[in-house]
Amino acid sequence: MPSITSAAVDARARAVRHVPVLESGIFTQEPGFLANVAWTEGALAELHKQLGKARDGGGAQANQRHQERGRLLPRDRVAHVLDRGAPFLELCPLAGLDVDNNRPGAGLIGGVGVVAGVECVISANDATVQGGAITAVAVQKTRRLAEISAENRLPFVMMVESAGADLPNQADIFLPGGRGFRDITTRSKEQVPTVCLVFGSSTAGGAYMPGMSDYVVMVKQQAQAYLAGPPLVKMAIGEDVDDEALGGADMHARTSGLCDYLAEDELDACRLAREIIASIGWEKAGPGPSMPADPPRYDPTELRGLAVADLRQPIPAREVIARIVDGSRFQDFKPLYGPTLVTGFASICGFPVGILANDGILWPESAEKGAQFIQLCNQRNIPLIFLHNTTGFMVGEAVERRGIIRAGAKLVNAVSNSAVPAITLQIGASYGAGNYAMCGRAYGPRFLFTWPNHRIAVMGGEQLAGVLDIIKRQSAARKGRAVDEEELGMMKQLIAGKIDHESSALYATARIWDDGVIDPADSRTVLALALSAVHSAPVVGSMAMGVFRH
């Protein structure tokens, strides 16, 4: 990708003078706004409580035992690899929350950070959590980190200290876990290197993590890698052998050749990782920021008052945009047509973007406008930002006659086949086919984050209970039976409660339906970090779409 000349930057800087600035109509002392702030701060308190549990790993006693063995805690290892003062965009930090017996984070730390000036994906087994055993959720999280590395062309720094698969649950781990080894080698084929730091045990299938990596660092008298540990070797072939002779770092550095760099201790291993990344001479394949990166004119903390607790209330799209984009500048595209989908051009921390933001339910006109806008962004080679708050598409006889299915399919087609990177921020509801049309998880956004008020389901609990009521009454009428009102009322209450629980932001993030729940006030920062990451790969659009039904 050719670099942008200073003349081009100057031209774009002049161009922004003609881009309209969004005016805010929010009154921050209005009771409803203050109520939203209070609700959001309460939700954030619960979020930070759960994040605290994730950061504590296996708990105080497990952490103490780990340190008494002369080991750095896994988050300290990550900190020593990162550039000093560089941000770390942690991903899926609450994976596994209240899922089976997982602790929040699933015993694996992952995210995007800067190492020796290079943005990398970083993962670290947390050996304070069940010895770093790999659970089914940890396999899912590893797969997600691998996707982010491959799609965005980010080198991978992998920190290994694991007891291997969680054997009692091996049936859920064995086959999907094998994909992780394949991912390392396919990245290598695409010239996206993996640097593996082995701090402790790397046993059985886990031994292939360094085995498949491009560069391997092992810590002397601490790291071990073998296909079978001493007890299994004794059982299998009757041989007596100790850990060091069988698979110690010194043996692998001198004899087997598995170890490329023998580290004196953990700090030395972190230093060697930084040296390796620095020596690669990594260059981004996408363009850098090219627009003025002045802050929004409005306080981003005001986004906490826009994160409505009751999703029946609207979230004014332009008010959100005004607190995220550079200088609150926004070139509205087709503002009078299909107004329930706001589309337009802006920049975030200097990166040009096209924004699609829900401002109501999706109608045929808004869907068709969105499809056209996505094509324009592909034509201009700029990423897409989806600000996602939708109950779905409008329903009813009149709108069906106007072609809501056809128009909605056109938008979903455009989202599916768009080639420029997409980043989704779910700021409210995400129901039904609206999730698909606004680039939900199934449609492959490079990154996807949510606000704490986010709800995701086929439909809301109240709506689903209402549908159940209609179906039960119709069924009873066909059979000539009376409706048992008490039983029906109890059933509706149970189903509404179940759906409300299963559509919450914490429930979703625990299952890796997103990459993390964030403070609304951090939206601009998180989007900017994600945008920087996606520009490590080429940013090139495509006008090739599937057949549009007209």
Give the structure's gist in a few sentences:
The radius of gyration is 26 Å and the shape is globular. It is of the alpha/beta class.
Topology:
Elements: H1 6-15, H2 31-55, H3 60-68, H4 74-81, E1 88-90, E2 108-115, E3 118-125, H5 136-152, E4 156-162, H6 174-189, E5 194-203, H7 208-212, E6 215-219, E7 224-226, H8 230-237, H9 243-247, H10 249-256, E8 261-263, H11 266-280, H12 303-306, H13 317-322, E9 331-333, E10 341-348, E11 351-358, H14 364-380, E12 384-390, H15 397-401, H16 404-417, E13 422-431, H17 433-437, E14 447-450, E15 455-457, H18 461-479, H19 485-502, H20 505-510, H21 523-534
Parallel strand pairs: 3-4, 4-5, 5-6, 5-7, 6-8, 11-12, 12-13, 13-14, 13-15
Antiparallel strand pairs: 1-2, 2-3, 9-10, 10-11
Average pLDDT rating: 91
Structural class, from helix and strand content?
alpha/beta
Give the helix level as a range of percent: 40-55%
Strand count, sense and barrel status of the largest sheet are: 8 strands, mixed
How many angstroms does the end-to-end distance come to? 36 Å
Rg over CA atoms, rounded to whole Å, is 26 Å
Strand content: 15-25%
Task: Name the overall outline.
Answer: globular
Total DSSP E strands: 15
Task: Describe this protein with a few key phrases.
550 residues, alpha/beta, 8-stranded mixed sheet, 7-stranded mixed sheet, 21 helices, globular
